[in-house]
Each structure stands twice: as structure tokens, then as C-alpha cells.
Write a structure and sequence with these properties.
The chain has two domains: 273 residues, Spore Coat Polysaccharide Biosynthesis Protein SpsA, Chain A (Alpha-Beta Complex), CATH 3.90.550; 124 residues, UDP N-Acetylglucosamine Acyltransferase, domain 1 (3 Solenoid), CATH 2.160.10.10. The chain has eleven helices and 29 strands.
Amino acid sequence: MAQYDNVVAVILGGGAGSRLFPLTRERSKPAVPLGGKYRLIDVPVSNCINSGITQIFVLTQYNSASLNRHISRTYRFSSFSTGFVEVLAAEQTKENPDWFQGTADAVRQMLPHLRDWRVNTLLILSGDHLYRMDYRKFLARHFETNADLTISVVPCRPDEAQEFGLLKTNDSGSIIEFSEKPKGDALDAMRVDTTRFGLSEAEAEKRPFLASMGIYVFNYDRLVDLLKTDSTWLDFGREIIPASIEKLNVQAHFFRSYWEDIGTIRAFYEANLDLAAPLPKFNFFDTEAPIYTRSRYLPPSKLQRCDIDNTMVSEGCIMNGVYARNSIIGLRSRLDVGVRIEDSIIMGSDFFESIEEIRRDLETRKPHIGIGENSIIRRAIIDKNVRIGKNVKLLNIAGVENADGENGCYYIREGIIIIPKGATIQDGTSI
């Protein structure tokens, strides 16, 4: 285990997360809620902990306050260990007066914070992926092949391939060619025979490309040399990986399990709803590799006269006469009589309203936090602390693909209605 002692993980918090807007309007991408009670950042951090890697940095620069708060309240290691999860926000210095310009530039600017940890191996992860991986197998591949860089790869379909960095390997697994998000003929040229990686002929026909997962293991000294070679190299996919293939030992690690890049509203929506399926692709009920999150000590949820199926219900909810199908119902959700939820994500609330506060809401005709009587929600994402009144219909019957509501009270992206954090939808509203 000695070679694992000097492994440090760096989780890239991503840029502005524009494709996940408005979920990223007030938070960074890794802080976006997941599965009713988790956040996206909990996935890579938990994978690290379950793999025995407990020295973890999270790099971020946009809307990092809620991410800072979540990490500081969640991940506290024993004072007798060297473990930590620490946010490193972008900072302007004399040497680096600009914000992060890309994934490689983010790591370049954070090198001064890594020097004191005697790092010999750097595990670089993304903060917006849903998967479960034992990084010890990834590292074992890296060390066994004496690689300078190892990239974790998955087979992918032609319709999704152009969104990823694609690569080719030789028979020993060394990467010999890499192309970042190719299009047209360049895309077709990156086809490979994925039966060599254990896929059946039928599976290989459906998934004839090898895509980079954006997860890397670097020899630390080699990475430092690369980052110093050319200050205009800002991105791993566009510059660092192609330069590495030319002169270093670059290996592929084939990942065979479920992996989803949650970079768009549709991907986020579909990945969440799949969690509530009878046999989800990603299973939170795994005692050997749990996903950790903040302990909130909430009371059990209270359900009266409800009809609920294929739905995950988090702690602290009060639900009375609710119908729910294929949905996620998050922490502290308060759903009144006659509420109907279908194919939707209700993120819940950061706090409970007291009885006195709810009474004042009634007196001022202000909806309480949660969803009022007889409201119908279908194919929607309801962010945290939202107030939805009585007899509201969020259905998108017209089938609008994309729209922005007045004063930012709602958005429609890819046909999915999104009510942003803290918004209020008055009684009788129809969208």
C-alpha cells in the first residue's frame, strides 16, 4: 500500500455550469442536489473515501458558497488521520492574475497548494458525474504499466460520441490517438472494435467508440513538467493529453459499469428519475461502497392517505393525500392534500417553516414552502425552498421546448419545466 500513500485527489468543480442553468444560478455545479438528499460532489468524494484516498481537493470558482458550506459540514476526518476534503477556490495572484481558463489551467494554478503534500500521484476527477468506481483498480493499472498518465474510458454510442474526447489504443492498452469532441469525418475515423474490451458483437456494434471519462491518473512530476512546457495549454482534452501521447507512456483503463455525465438538464433529469426505478442503473443501496452526505438528524417522513409508487421519499417530509409516480421527493418537502406529482424532481427545502410562519403565510395569501392543495406537477424540476400555491398546474401541455418565464419565476429546458430556487408560484397558475 506504500505507493498509495502519496496519492492526492483533485476534483474539478467545473465552470459556470451554463448547461445546467437555472440549477446553477445560485450554486456551483458540484453543489447541485441529487437523489433527494445528496449533492453531485458526494459521488466522487465517496468514491475516494471508499477507495482509501482521503486527501482530496475540490477546485471551484463559480458560486462556491453552498459547496463550501456542504463540504465543511459533511466531511470531517479524525484528528488522528491526515484525511481532508478542502475547497480551493480560484484566486488571483501576482503569478496568475486570471481566473481558471480551463481544466489544466485550474490544476496549474493550484500547484502551490499541492507541493507540501509530497504528492507522487495525482488523481484528477470531475465533479458532475454519476458512477461508482474503486479507484484502487484504476491506480493499479497505472502502476502496473509504469504509466505517466492513465485515462479511464467507457464505450459509447455514435449519437453521444461527439460530446466526448475519443481515443484509440494498441493491443496492450496504450493510447495511440486522441481527438477532442470530433465531428463528421473526424468522428467516424475514431471508430474502434470494442469487442477487444470484452463487449459482445451486438454491444460493440451499438457502442463503437472509446470515450474519455474525464478521469485521469498522472505521475505528479510528469504533469508538472507538462504544465510548465507551455502556459497556453489550458485544457486536458485539447492540449495536455495529445502532448502526452506524443512523448509519454499513456494508458487506458477500461470501465465496465454505469457512468453518466450529468452536464445537461436532460441528463440530470433522467439520471435522477432512474434512481427511483425498481432496478436503477446506479444503486444507492450498496453497503460496501456507500455514498456519503451530510447527517441532518431529521425526523422520519410522515405520510397520510398517500398513493406513491416508483418514488424516492427523503427524510423530514410531510405528505397528506398525495399521489406520486416515478419521482424524487427531497428533504423537508411539504405536500398538501390532492397534490399530484408525476415524473418530477422535488428538491425539498433547506429548513422547516414553523406553524406560526405558515399561519402568517395564509394571512398574507403567500404560499407556504412546498406544494399547495390540488396542484399538479408533471415532468418538472422544483428546486429548493420553492413556494407553489393551490391549484397550480405545471404541465407544459403546449410542449414548449425552451422558454424563460417573466422575472425568472420559471424556465423550460428541453421540454422540462424548472422552478428555480426560492421562487414563488401563486395560486391557480398554469404553465
